[in-house]
Amino acid sequence: MTVTQSQAPQLPATVTPVPRHSVPGRIRVISGVTVAALALLFAALGVGSLTAGDGLQVIGRDAGPQVVATAGLYLALSDMDAQVANALVMGEQYAQQRGAAVARYERRRSEASQALLKAFELAGDDAATRRTVQSVLDGLGRYERLAGQALLLNEQARHAPGAPPDNVVGTYRQATDLMRSVLLPQAYNLTLESGTIVRRTYDDKNAMVPLLRTAVLLAGLLALGCLIWLQIFLARRFRRVFGPALLAATLTTAVSLILGANVLGQDQEDLRTAKAQGFDSVLTLAKARAISNSMQGDQSRYLLDKGRADTYEHTFLDKSQSVVYFESGNLTQYHAKVAGGSDDALGMLGPELTGPEGRRVLEAYRAFQAADTSFRQLALGGRTADAVTAKLGPVTTAFDAYDRALVALAERHERTFDRAIDAGENALDNLWRLLPFAIAGIGLLVIAGVWPRLKEYR
Question: What transmembrane ranges does the database entry give (predicted)?
Fold first, then answer.
Protein backbone atom coordinates (compact mmCIF):
# COMPACT_ATOMS: atom_id res chain seq x y z
CA MET A 1 0.00 0.00 0.00
CA THR A 2 1.43 3.22 -1.09
CA VAL A 3 1.01 6.03 1.24
CA THR A 4 0.99 9.41 -0.45
CA GLN A 5 2.49 12.11 1.65
CA SER A 6 0.35 15.16 1.62
CA GLN A 7 2.08 18.46 0.90
CA ALA A 8 1.17 21.72 2.49
CA PRO A 9 -0.43 24.14 0.09
CA GLN A 10 1.95 26.81 -1.20
CA LEU A 11 0.85 30.34 -0.25
CA PRO A 12 1.43 33.02 -2.83
CA ALA A 13 4.18 35.48 -2.00
CA THR A 14 2.93 38.63 -0.24
CA VAL A 15 3.36 41.71 -2.42
CA THR A 16 3.71 44.99 -0.50
CA PRO A 17 1.68 47.66 -2.26
CA VAL A 18 3.61 50.73 -3.39
CA PRO A 19 2.62 53.67 -1.16
CA ARG A 20 1.58 55.78 -4.10
CA HIS A 21 -1.06 57.51 -1.98
CA SER A 22 1.67 59.20 0.15
CA VAL A 23 2.95 61.28 -2.78
CA PRO A 24 -0.25 63.25 -3.42
CA GLY A 25 -0.64 63.51 0.33
CA ARG A 26 2.77 65.09 0.65
CA ILE A 27 2.06 67.36 -2.30
CA ARG A 28 -1.12 68.51 -0.60
CA VAL A 29 0.68 69.11 2.71
CA ILE A 30 3.48 71.11 1.12
CA SER A 31 0.98 73.02 -1.01
CA GLY A 32 -1.13 73.75 2.06
CA VAL A 33 1.86 75.06 3.97
CA THR A 34 2.80 77.19 0.97
CA VAL A 35 -0.69 78.63 0.69
CA ALA A 36 -0.72 79.35 4.43
CA ALA A 37 2.63 81.16 4.14
CA LEU A 38 1.32 83.19 1.20
CA ALA A 39 -1.83 84.05 3.17
CA LEU A 40 0.36 85.17 6.07
CA LEU A 41 2.39 87.37 3.72
CA PHE A 42 -0.64 89.09 2.25
CA ALA A 43 -2.29 89.42 5.66
CA ALA A 44 0.84 91.16 6.97
CA LEU A 45 0.85 93.41 3.90
CA GLY A 46 -2.82 94.24 4.44
CA VAL A 47 -2.44 95.05 8.14
CA GLY A 48 0.71 97.06 7.51
CA SER A 49 -0.95 99.06 4.74
CA LEU A 50 -4.01 99.77 6.88
CA THR A 51 -1.85 100.86 9.80
CA ALA A 52 0.27 103.21 7.69
CA GLY A 53 -2.82 104.52 5.89
CA ASP A 54 -4.52 105.27 9.19
CA GLY A 55 -1.51 107.27 10.35
CA LEU A 56 -1.42 109.27 7.12
CA GLN A 57 -5.18 109.89 7.35
CA VAL A 58 -5.10 111.13 10.95
CA ILE A 59 -2.04 113.35 10.55
CA GLY A 60 -2.70 114.52 7.00
CA ARG A 61 -6.48 114.81 6.82
CA ASP A 62 -8.08 114.75 10.29
CA ALA A 63 -6.29 115.81 13.48
CA GLY A 64 -3.41 117.51 11.66
CA PRO A 65 -5.61 120.05 9.83
CA GLN A 66 -7.60 120.52 13.04
CA VAL A 67 -4.42 121.55 14.87
CA VAL A 68 -3.54 124.03 12.12
CA ALA A 69 -7.10 125.40 12.19
CA THR A 70 -7.03 125.93 15.95
CA ALA A 71 -3.56 127.52 15.69
CA GLY A 72 -5.08 129.90 13.16
CA LEU A 73 -7.81 130.59 15.69
CA TYR A 74 -5.19 131.67 18.25
CA LEU A 75 -3.67 134.03 15.69
CA ALA A 76 -7.03 135.53 14.73
CA LEU A 77 -8.05 136.10 18.35
CA SER A 78 -4.73 137.67 19.37
CA ASP A 79 -4.76 139.94 16.33
CA MET A 80 -8.33 141.04 17.06
CA ASP A 81 -7.21 142.35 20.44
CA ALA A 82 -4.09 143.94 18.94
CA GLN A 83 -6.12 145.80 16.30
CA VAL A 84 -8.52 147.16 18.92
CA ALA A 85 -5.53 148.47 20.89
CA ASN A 86 -4.06 149.98 17.72
CA ALA A 87 -7.32 151.78 16.90
CA LEU A 88 -7.71 153.12 20.45
CA VAL A 89 -4.19 154.52 20.73
CA MET A 90 -4.51 156.52 17.47
CA GLY A 91 -7.03 158.95 18.95
CA GLU A 92 -8.79 161.31 16.57
CA GLN A 93 -5.87 161.41 14.15
CA TYR A 94 -4.78 158.80 11.61
CA ALA A 95 -8.32 158.26 10.33
CA GLN A 96 -7.13 156.09 7.45
CA GLN A 97 -4.96 153.87 9.65
CA ARG A 98 -7.72 153.63 12.26
CA GLY A 99 -10.20 152.54 9.61
CA ALA A 100 -7.71 149.94 8.38
CA ALA A 101 -7.24 148.63 11.94
CA VAL A 102 -11.00 148.30 12.45
CA ALA A 103 -11.39 146.59 9.07
CA ARG A 104 -8.63 144.15 9.97
CA TYR A 105 -10.34 143.51 13.29
CA GLU A 106 -13.51 142.57 11.41
CA ARG A 107 -11.58 140.25 9.08
CA ARG A 108 -9.91 138.52 12.00
CA ARG A 109 -13.26 138.15 13.73
CA SER A 110 -14.62 136.41 10.64
CA GLU A 111 -11.52 134.18 10.46
CA ALA A 112 -11.92 133.29 14.14
CA SER A 113 -15.57 132.33 13.61
CA GLN A 114 -14.68 130.19 10.59
CA ALA A 115 -11.83 128.51 12.47
CA LEU A 116 -14.18 127.72 15.35
CA LEU A 117 -16.75 126.21 13.00
CA LYS A 118 -14.05 124.10 11.34
CA ALA A 119 -12.73 122.99 14.72
CA PHE A 120 -16.29 122.05 15.74
CA GLU A 121 -16.77 119.98 12.58
CA LEU A 122 -13.39 118.27 12.92
CA ALA A 123 -14.11 117.48 16.59
CA GLY A 124 -16.61 114.83 15.46
CA ASP A 125 -17.98 112.96 18.47
CA ASP A 126 -15.44 114.43 20.91
CA ALA A 127 -17.79 116.05 23.42
CA ALA A 128 -15.01 117.76 25.40
CA THR A 129 -13.61 119.50 22.33
CA ARG A 130 -17.08 120.57 21.26
CA ARG A 131 -17.73 122.08 24.68
CA THR A 132 -14.45 123.99 24.48
CA VAL A 133 -15.35 125.34 21.04
CA GLN A 134 -18.77 126.39 22.31
CA SER A 135 -17.17 128.11 25.30
CA VAL A 136 -14.83 130.07 23.01
CA LEU A 137 -17.81 131.08 20.85
CA ASP A 138 -19.66 132.37 23.90
CA GLY A 139 -16.62 134.23 25.19
CA LEU A 140 -15.97 135.70 21.75
CA GLY A 141 -19.46 137.20 21.78
CA ARG A 142 -18.76 138.86 25.13
CA TYR A 143 -15.40 140.14 23.90
CA GLU A 144 -16.96 141.65 20.76
CA ARG A 145 -19.48 143.57 22.86
CA LEU A 146 -16.75 145.00 25.13
CA ALA A 147 -14.45 145.82 22.21
CA GLY A 148 -17.28 147.50 20.33
CA GLN A 149 -18.16 149.55 23.39
CA ALA A 150 -14.51 150.61 23.83
CA LEU A 151 -14.26 151.66 20.17
CA LEU A 152 -17.48 153.65 20.44
CA LEU A 153 -16.38 155.45 23.62
CA ASN A 154 -13.01 156.14 22.03
CA GLU A 155 -14.63 157.71 18.99
CA GLN A 156 -16.79 159.90 21.21
CA ALA A 157 -13.79 161.03 23.28
CA ARG A 158 -11.91 162.45 20.26
CA HIS A 159 -8.61 162.41 22.17
CA ALA A 160 -5.08 163.05 20.98
CA PRO A 161 -2.84 160.12 19.98
CA GLY A 162 -1.82 158.14 23.03
CA ALA A 163 -3.72 157.08 26.13
CA PRO A 164 -7.52 157.53 25.82
CA PRO A 165 -9.81 158.61 28.72
CA ASP A 166 -10.18 156.33 31.73
CA ASN A 167 -13.62 155.03 30.71
CA VAL A 168 -12.18 153.81 27.41
CA VAL A 169 -9.18 152.23 29.14
CA GLY A 170 -11.41 150.56 31.73
CA THR A 171 -13.69 149.04 29.10
CA TYR A 172 -10.73 147.86 27.04
CA ARG A 173 -9.16 146.32 30.15
CA GLN A 174 -12.23 144.14 30.57
CA ALA A 175 -12.03 143.09 26.93
CA THR A 176 -8.30 142.33 26.87
CA ASP A 177 -8.45 140.53 30.23
CA LEU A 178 -11.21 138.31 28.84
CA MET A 179 -9.13 137.66 25.73
CA ARG A 180 -5.84 136.93 27.51
CA SER A 181 -7.17 135.03 30.53
CA VAL A 182 -10.03 133.04 28.94
CA LEU A 183 -10.21 132.97 25.14
CA LEU A 184 -6.54 132.58 24.22
CA PRO A 185 -5.91 129.82 26.81
CA GLN A 186 -8.99 127.95 25.58
CA ALA A 187 -7.87 128.32 21.97
CA TYR A 188 -4.43 127.05 22.96
CA ASN A 189 -6.03 124.08 24.73
CA LEU A 190 -7.85 123.19 21.52
CA THR A 191 -4.49 123.14 19.75
CA LEU A 192 -2.93 121.04 22.51
CA GLU A 193 -5.77 118.49 22.46
CA SER A 194 -5.56 118.04 18.71
CA GLY A 195 -1.77 118.02 18.86
CA THR A 196 -1.89 115.24 21.44
CA ILE A 197 -3.92 113.12 19.01
CA VAL A 198 -1.33 113.73 16.30
CA ARG A 199 1.60 112.87 18.56
CA ARG A 200 -0.08 109.76 19.94
CA THR A 201 -0.99 108.58 16.45
CA TYR A 202 2.50 109.21 15.14
CA ASP A 203 4.19 107.43 18.04
CA ASP A 204 1.86 104.46 17.64
CA LYS A 205 2.27 104.15 13.87
CA ASN A 206 5.99 104.87 14.00
CA ALA A 207 6.37 101.89 16.31
CA MET A 208 3.94 99.56 14.55
CA VAL A 209 4.84 100.06 10.89
CA PRO A 210 8.47 98.85 11.25
CA LEU A 211 7.26 95.78 13.14
CA LEU A 212 4.70 95.02 10.44
CA ARG A 213 7.32 95.57 7.75
CA THR A 214 9.53 93.04 9.51
CA ALA A 215 6.55 90.65 9.64
CA VAL A 216 6.07 91.13 5.89
CA LEU A 217 9.73 90.32 5.24
CA LEU A 218 9.65 87.20 7.42
CA ALA A 219 6.35 85.99 5.96
CA GLY A 220 7.60 86.68 2.45
CA LEU A 221 10.81 84.73 3.00
CA LEU A 222 8.78 81.88 4.45
CA ALA A 223 6.45 81.88 1.44
CA LEU A 224 9.39 81.91 -0.97
CA GLY A 225 11.02 79.06 0.94
CA CYS A 226 7.82 77.01 0.74
CA LEU A 227 7.47 77.64 -2.99
CA ILE A 228 11.06 76.59 -3.59
CA TRP A 229 10.53 73.52 -1.36
CA LEU A 230 7.43 72.58 -3.37
CA GLN A 231 9.27 72.93 -6.68
CA ILE A 232 12.27 70.91 -5.53
CA PHE A 233 10.01 68.15 -4.24
CA LEU A 234 8.05 67.97 -7.49
CA ALA A 235 11.21 68.11 -9.62
CA ARG A 236 12.91 65.28 -7.72
CA ARG A 237 9.82 63.09 -7.38
CA PHE A 238 8.77 63.31 -10.98
CA ARG A 239 12.27 63.70 -12.41
CA ARG A 240 11.32 66.84 -14.30
CA VAL A 241 12.64 70.35 -14.51
CA PHE A 242 11.01 73.11 -12.51
CA GLY A 243 7.51 73.93 -13.68
CA PRO A 244 7.03 77.37 -15.30
CA ALA A 245 3.83 78.03 -13.34
CA LEU A 246 5.53 77.63 -9.95
CA LEU A 247 8.54 79.60 -11.16
CA ALA A 248 6.18 82.42 -12.14
CA ALA A 249 4.43 82.16 -8.76
CA THR A 250 7.79 82.42 -6.99
CA LEU A 251 8.79 85.43 -9.06
CA THR A 252 5.43 87.15 -8.44
CA THR A 253 5.73 86.48 -4.71
CA ALA A 254 9.23 87.96 -4.65
CA VAL A 255 8.01 91.05 -6.49
CA SER A 256 5.07 91.40 -4.09
CA LEU A 257 7.40 91.04 -1.12
CA ILE A 258 9.85 93.65 -2.37
CA LEU A 259 7.09 96.05 -3.42
CA GLY A 260 5.17 95.69 -0.16
CA ALA A 261 8.25 96.08 2.03
CA ASN A 262 9.35 99.13 0.03
CA VAL A 263 5.90 100.75 0.27
CA LEU A 264 5.77 100.26 4.03
CA GLY A 265 9.29 101.62 4.36
CA GLN A 266 8.40 104.61 2.19
CA ASP A 267 5.22 105.23 4.18
CA GLN A 268 7.18 105.17 7.43
CA GLU A 269 9.62 107.71 6.02
CA ASP A 270 6.80 109.85 4.57
CA LEU A 271 5.01 109.77 7.90
CA ARG A 272 8.20 110.85 9.68
CA THR A 273 8.80 113.63 7.13
CA ALA A 274 5.21 114.87 7.34
CA LYS A 275 5.36 114.97 11.14
CA ALA A 276 8.91 116.22 11.81
CA GLN A 277 9.63 118.45 8.80
CA GLY A 278 6.08 119.49 7.99
CA PHE A 279 3.49 119.39 10.73
CA ASP A 280 5.75 120.24 13.68
CA SER A 281 7.31 123.20 11.89
CA VAL A 282 3.97 124.50 10.57
CA LEU A 283 2.50 124.35 14.07
CA THR A 284 5.57 126.00 15.62
CA LEU A 285 5.50 128.83 13.09
CA ALA A 286 1.75 129.29 13.55
CA LYS A 287 2.27 129.66 17.31
CA ALA A 288 5.20 132.02 16.74
CA ARG A 289 3.06 134.18 14.43
CA ALA A 290 0.27 134.36 16.99
CA ILE A 291 2.61 135.24 19.85
CA SER A 292 4.46 137.77 17.70
CA ASN A 293 1.18 139.37 16.71
CA SER A 294 0.29 139.68 20.35
CA MET A 295 3.72 141.29 20.92
CA GLN A 296 2.98 144.12 18.54
CA GLY A 297 -0.38 144.51 20.29
CA ASP A 298 1.53 144.89 23.58
CA GLN A 299 3.34 147.84 22.04
CA SER A 300 0.02 149.65 21.55
CA ARG A 301 -1.19 148.56 24.98
CA TYR A 302 2.06 149.98 26.43
CA LEU A 303 0.99 153.42 25.20
CA LEU A 304 -2.72 152.87 25.75
CA ASP A 305 -2.78 151.92 29.44
CA LYS A 306 -0.30 153.90 31.54
CA GLY A 307 -1.31 152.03 34.67
CA ARG A 308 -0.18 148.74 33.14
CA ALA A 309 2.72 150.01 31.02
CA ASP A 310 5.34 148.12 33.03
CA THR A 311 3.25 144.97 32.85
CA TYR A 312 2.95 145.20 29.08
CA GLU A 313 6.68 145.83 28.76
CA HIS A 314 7.45 142.67 30.76
CA THR A 315 4.84 140.77 28.75
CA PHE A 316 6.52 141.91 25.54
CA LEU A 317 9.87 140.64 26.86
CA ASP A 318 8.42 137.28 27.93
CA LYS A 319 6.82 136.75 24.54
CA SER A 320 9.98 137.83 22.73
CA GLN A 321 12.07 135.34 24.68
CA SER A 322 9.57 132.56 24.04
CA VAL A 323 9.89 133.19 20.30
CA VAL A 324 13.64 133.85 20.07
CA TYR A 325 15.47 133.29 23.33
CA PHE A 326 18.53 135.23 24.43
CA GLU A 327 19.35 135.28 28.12
CA SER A 328 18.64 138.73 29.53
CA GLY A 329 17.19 140.29 32.66
CA ASN A 330 15.25 143.12 31.06
CA LEU A 331 14.09 144.39 27.70
CA THR A 332 17.08 146.69 27.23
CA GLN A 333 19.48 143.77 27.63
CA TYR A 334 17.37 141.67 25.31
CA HIS A 335 17.44 144.34 22.60
CA ALA A 336 21.24 144.44 22.91
CA LYS A 337 21.55 140.65 22.64
CA VAL A 338 19.29 140.53 19.57
CA ALA A 339 21.21 143.36 17.90
CA GLY A 340 24.50 141.59 18.69
CA GLY A 341 24.16 139.43 15.61
CA SER A 342 24.40 136.01 17.24
CA ASP A 343 22.77 133.22 15.24
CA ASP A 344 22.73 130.81 18.20
CA ALA A 345 19.15 131.59 19.13
CA LEU A 346 17.00 129.24 21.14
CA GLY A 347 13.31 129.47 21.90
CA MET A 348 10.38 128.49 19.73
CA LEU A 349 11.99 129.62 16.46
CA GLY A 350 15.48 128.36 17.28
CA PRO A 351 15.30 125.08 15.29
CA GLU A 352 13.60 126.85 12.38
CA LEU A 353 16.25 129.55 11.85
CA THR A 354 18.36 127.50 9.45
CA GLY A 355 18.73 127.81 5.71
CA PRO A 356 18.16 130.98 3.67
CA GLU A 357 14.51 131.41 4.65
CA GLY A 358 15.25 130.84 8.33
CA ARG A 359 18.02 133.44 8.26
CA ARG A 360 15.66 135.91 6.60
CA VAL A 361 13.23 135.38 9.48
CA LEU A 362 15.97 136.11 12.02
CA GLU A 363 17.11 139.26 10.18
CA ALA A 364 13.52 140.51 9.97
CA TYR A 365 13.07 139.79 13.68
CA ARG A 366 16.21 141.82 14.47
CA ALA A 367 14.82 144.73 12.45
CA PHE A 368 11.53 144.54 14.36
CA GLN A 369 13.29 144.56 17.73
CA ALA A 370 15.48 147.47 16.61
CA ALA A 371 12.35 149.42 15.68
CA ASP A 372 10.90 148.58 19.09
CA THR A 373 14.01 150.02 20.75
CA SER A 374 13.52 153.38 19.03
CA PHE A 375 9.80 153.30 19.72
CA ARG A 376 10.30 152.85 23.48
CA GLN A 377 12.93 155.55 23.64
CA LEU A 378 10.37 158.01 22.26
CA ALA A 379 7.73 156.85 24.75
CA LEU A 380 10.11 157.06 27.71
CA GLY A 381 11.13 160.52 26.61
CA GLY A 382 7.55 161.72 26.91
CA ARG A 383 7.11 162.05 23.14
CA THR A 384 3.90 160.07 23.03
CA ALA A 385 2.67 161.44 19.71
CA ASP A 386 6.00 160.62 18.07
CA ALA A 387 5.88 157.15 19.64
CA VAL A 388 2.44 156.58 18.09
CA THR A 389 3.79 157.76 14.75
CA ALA A 390 6.73 155.35 15.09
CA LYS A 391 4.37 152.52 16.03
CA LEU A 392 2.24 153.13 12.95
CA GLY A 393 5.25 153.66 10.71
CA PRO A 394 8.67 151.98 11.14
CA VAL A 395 7.53 149.52 13.81
CA THR A 396 4.56 148.26 11.78
CA THR A 397 6.65 148.12 8.59
CA ALA A 398 9.31 146.04 10.35
CA PHE A 399 6.73 143.76 11.91
CA ASP A 400 4.95 143.18 8.59
CA ALA A 401 8.26 142.19 6.97
CA TYR A 402 8.95 139.79 9.85
CA ASP A 403 5.44 138.33 9.58
CA ARG A 404 5.82 137.82 5.81
CA ALA A 405 9.10 135.99 6.43
CA LEU A 406 7.33 133.69 8.90
CA VAL A 407 4.54 133.02 6.41
CA ALA A 408 7.03 132.21 3.63
CA LEU A 409 8.86 129.75 5.89
CA ALA A 410 5.57 128.18 6.99
CA GLU A 411 4.45 127.77 3.37
CA ARG A 412 7.65 125.88 2.57
CA HIS A 413 7.00 123.46 5.41
CA GLU A 414 3.36 123.13 4.34
CA ARG A 415 4.53 122.06 0.88
CA THR A 416 6.84 119.50 2.49
CA PHE A 417 3.93 118.24 4.58
CA ASP A 418 1.56 117.97 1.61
CA ARG A 419 4.14 116.22 -0.58
CA ALA A 420 4.90 113.65 2.11
CA ILE A 421 1.23 112.88 2.78
CA ASP A 422 0.42 112.66 -0.94
CA ALA A 423 3.44 110.45 -1.65
CA GLY A 424 2.53 108.06 1.16
CA GLU A 425 -1.12 107.83 0.13
CA ASN A 426 -0.25 107.35 -3.56
CA ALA A 427 2.15 104.52 -2.72
CA LEU A 428 -0.55 102.80 -0.65
CA ASP A 429 -3.14 103.28 -3.39
CA ASN A 430 -0.82 101.62 -5.93
CA LEU A 431 -0.18 98.74 -3.54
CA TRP A 432 -3.89 98.20 -2.91
CA ARG A 433 -4.57 98.17 -6.65
CA LEU A 434 -1.89 95.53 -7.25
CA LEU A 435 -2.54 93.26 -4.27
CA PRO A 436 -5.77 91.62 -5.56
CA PHE A 437 -4.12 90.77 -8.87
CA ALA A 438 -1.05 89.41 -7.10
CA ILE A 439 -3.15 87.24 -4.75
CA ALA A 440 -5.30 85.89 -7.58
CA GLY A 441 -2.34 85.39 -9.91
CA ILE A 442 -0.19 83.54 -7.39
CA GLY A 443 -3.11 81.35 -6.37
CA LEU A 444 -3.83 80.37 -9.96
CA LEU A 445 -0.16 79.74 -10.69
CA VAL A 446 0.22 77.45 -7.66
CA ILE A 447 -2.86 75.49 -8.75
CA ALA A 448 -1.54 75.30 -12.31
CA GLY A 449 1.79 73.98 -11.03
CA VAL A 450 0.39 71.37 -8.61
CA TRP A 451 -2.83 70.14 -10.21
CA PRO A 452 -1.22 68.28 -13.18
CA ARG A 453 0.96 66.30 -10.76
CA LEU A 454 -2.01 65.33 -8.64
CA LYS A 455 -3.95 64.19 -11.73
CA GLU A 456 -1.27 61.60 -12.45
CA TYR A 457 -2.43 59.63 -9.36
CA ARG A 458 -6.05 59.42 -10.34
Answer: 29-52, 215-235, 241-265, 434-454
